[in-house]
Specification:
Distance between the termini: 23 Å
CATH topology of the largest domain: Alpha-Beta Plaits
CATH superfamily of the largest domain: Pseudouridine synthase I, catalytic domain, N-terminal subdomain
Shape: elongated
Number of domains: 3
Structural class: alpha+beta
Strand content: 25-35%
Helix content: 10-25%
Number of helices: 6
CATH class of the largest domain: Alpha Beta
Largest sheet: 9 strands, mixed
Number of strands: 15
Length: 231
C-alpha cells in the first residue's frame, strides 16, 4: 500500500492532505523520514507521524448528520463556533466532514475517517450529485428562471453545469447539482434574480435526509457505504 493511502486509512488525514504531511517531513517509516507519498508500506512497517506510531488502519465508518443552522462544517473553529464533529461521537476515531455546508445552511452532511471515500465523494471528476431545497425571496420564480438554472448560469468563476430543478411551490424549489463550488446554489439563484432565504441539503447521491431531526446523526450501514463508493 502507498504511504499516503496508508495514512488516510489510519485516520491521519485525507489522502490529499496526507501527501502534504509527508512532504513536510513529518512521517517516518522504519525510523527513516520519507518524503515520497508513493513509498510502499507493508503490514510489518513501523510508521510514525510527528514521532507517534500508528497502529494501522482504523475501522472505516461513515455518519450521516442533520447539520443545524449556525454549526460550521469543520473539525475545529478559531471563532469558537460549534462544529459538526462535536455533534457525532468519535469513539476515538478522527472524523472529518465530507465537503461543506455553510453555517447559514442546514441539512445532510457526512462525517468519516475514510479519506479515500471522502475524496471520491468531493472530487469534481466523480460528479456526485447533491440535492438542495431552497426557499427563494422576491416574486414567485418564473419558468424563465427555472430554464436558466437547468441550462447552467454564468458565475464570476465560470459557467455552471446544467442543474436539475423542480418547482415545489411559488418560491420553493429543489435543485440537484454535481459540482461543489463555494456557495454555489445561493449564487446560482441570485444570478437569476432570486435571493435564497433558507437552504437545506436533502440528499447526497441516493442517501436522503429523511428521519433525521436537526442535530441528530446515524451510522451508515455497510450496504449504504458501498452505495456511496459506487457513486
Amino acid at each position: 500500500m502507498r504511504l499516503a493511502k496508508y495514512l488516510a486509512h489510519a485516520g491521519v488525514a485525507s489522502r490529499r492532505a496526507a501527501e502534504k504531511v509527508i512532504a513536510g517531513g513529518r512521517v517516518s517509516v522504519d525510523g527513516k523520514i520519507v518524503l515520497d507519498p508513493a513509498r510502499g508500506v507493508g503490514e510489518d512497517s513501523r510508521v510514525t507521524v510527528d514521532g507517534r506510531a500508528l497502529d494501522g488502519a482504523e475501522a472505516r465508518v461513515v455518519y450521516a448528520l442533520h447539520k443545524p443552522l449556525g454549526v460550521v462544517s469543520t473539525a475545529s473553529d478559531s471563532h469558537g463556533r460549534p462544529t459538526v464533529v462535536e455533534l457525532v461521537p468519535s469513539e476515538g476515531l478522527r472524523l472529518y466532514p465530507v465537503g461543506r455546508l455553510d453555517a447559514d445552511s442546514s441539512g445532510l452532511i457526512l462525517l468519516t475517517n475514510d479519506g479515500e471515500l471522502a475524496n471520491r465523494l468531493t472530487h469534481p471528476r466523480f460528479e456526485v450529485e447533491k440535492t438542495y431545497r431552497a426557499m427563494l425571496g422576491g416574486a414567485p420564480i418564473t419558468d424563465g428562471a427555472l430554464r436558466s438554472l437547468r441550462r447552467g448560469v454564468e458565475l464570476d468563476d465560470g459557467p455552471t453545469a446544467p442543474a436539475r430543478v423542480r418547482r415545489m411551490s411559488a418560491n420553493l424549489i429543489e435543485l440537484t447539482i454535481s459540482e461543489g463550488r463555494n456557495r454555489q446554489v445561493r449564487r446560482m439563484c441570485e444570478e437569476v434574480g432570486h435571493p435564497v432565504l433558507t437552504l437545506e441539503r436533502i440528499a447526497f447521491g441516493r442517501l436522503r435526509l429523511e428521519g433525521l431531526a436537526p442535530g441528530m446523526h446515524r451510522r451508515l450501514s455497510g450496504l449504504e457505504i458501498e452505495r456511496l463508493r459506487a457513486l
